[in-house]
Amino acid sequence: MKIDTTFLNTLSEQAKVSPRLRQNYDLRTSDADTSQRMLNALQPGTVVPIHRHKGSTETVILIRGCVREVIFDDNGKEIEGIILNSETPMLQIPAGQWHTLEVIDPDSIIFEAKDGAYQPLEASDIMQ
Question: What is the mean pLDDT of the chain?
Answer without folding.
Answer: 96
